[in-house]
Protein: Anaphase promoting complex subunit 7
Amino acid sequence: MTTQALVSEIQQLLDSDLCESALHLAELECRPQLLDGCVAPKERLALLRAYCSCLWALRQHRASLRAITEFIASPVRASLAAEDLEKVARDIAHVRWELGEHDLCLAQLRQIPRSHRTAKDLARMARCAAVIQSADAPELYAELLKRQPNAVEAYAYLNSLRGTSGGGGGRRQQYPPDAGSYHGVASLAAARGMMLRLEYRAAAAEFQRLARRHRGNAHVLAQQATCHYMLNEVQKARTLYEMARSLDGSLVQEMGVYSGLLAAVSRDPHTVYRLGNHLLKTDQARPEGWVAMARYFLVRAQTQEALAIVWKAQTLAPDYAEAYYAEGEIQMASGCAEEAADVFQKAHELAPSALTYRGIVDAYVQCGKYKEAFLYAKEAAELIPRHAGALAAVGIVLSHSPESHDKAAQLLEAALGLDPRCTEAIAALASLHVATQQLPAALALIEKYLSENDSDDMYTRYADVLTLASRLPEAAANYTTALTLNPDNERARTGFDRVDRLMHPNASPESAGEGEDDPGAASDDRQQLSDGASGEDDAMDQSMHEFDRSDISDGIL
Structure:
């Protein structure tokens, strides 16, 4: 069968909606010839496009992308004319568009010389630029309008800019009645703009409207999930992420952020590993899978391996903010707060978010740079009003100054009033009560919110305070609960050993270490715990910082 006859037969099957039969034929006939150096390059390109058409019809876009990239990376590239290479660039751009990777779609189409761009190329470039809010979106739409004066979408976009500039006061744009194709692009661009301005509640509502108009759109659901994650609505965010992944098994967009959520809330590190492994199998050229794998090693406390992998993600995508944010988490876990502050700043410059604000504040607090931390915390609280995490961040910074303890307590209580699941507010307020020798208040606070925050960290903190209050049997029970939830919780294990020494001061040297030789060991244990709880540089203070770091990925700020 000649190449032309084979391509024609595949197209007939596709036109008859026999897509699986068409793909089966393409697998049998096209794939072998794509690797055959005896077949002319133009014929191989025609076979490739026929094969990819079958994959597109079945929405196997990631598989088609692999086929195209493997083909174009082979020696056949040197034999293709410039016109053929432009066709390949358009095919790759089409796949990127279908995958919702608008930045990569735009970059691919920019490789086509300006004089060779079709009206369809310009329309797709303009849409991508509008969605990612590229500065050249107006220029591209203007060029499209020159090429096609009846391009309603271009007219609507440029008219919207005139309607909201100057003294328009941001009035609502009236679109032409037949500009339906524009509404989806405009809504998506508006929602993303809200995310960049940290208007997460409004952005989530806009994505929800988009999801109703475009049912089954995984990319919209994933971005809606990120908005809820930034608002600390973790369970809702996780549900939406999983819905998006079930709709599109090759979804990559927003999965770097999702890996941060899983690393923060999942008690099984292999959940993060499975996500990262799936993303890398889907597309190793994207950074999201590498970020997820870096977080897996971070959860396993293998920070050097995590750093090496996250640097790989940064090399693949130097402008991907989540890769720098993940490095900040790793540097914090390694005790390198200065380095963490630098990379959090880099992430913030690329894409400011509730997470980057929280990362910067935590890093500066750990460095002792409270003035800088306060400025960022205050800015976040102003940009995200009625956000418990942002309010708590200001309280956490103020809690490090004895003169501001009362104000800090008020802010932390207000944060809990907004969101009783704001774990960093509970932790900071409990530590503040301990620092001011108000142990009953600290215990009452944790007991009040423990049912809604039943993590191993919270049980460990509760046990710490019970130890200070000399309620040792209860402390031991709560350390045990923490270890049941997370057997790798070293802080809980250390605390349990401490309580055991306090409860059994006359134990044998083998079981009590040096406790028998030093009668004051039990007293020293209590003193060390108390000093740490009041903010000194020892075990309890370290536990506070560790607790805060574990919540960076929750998007609570």
Residues 41-57 form the longest helix (17 residues). Residues 163-181, 511-519, 530-557 have pLDDT under 50 and may be disordered.
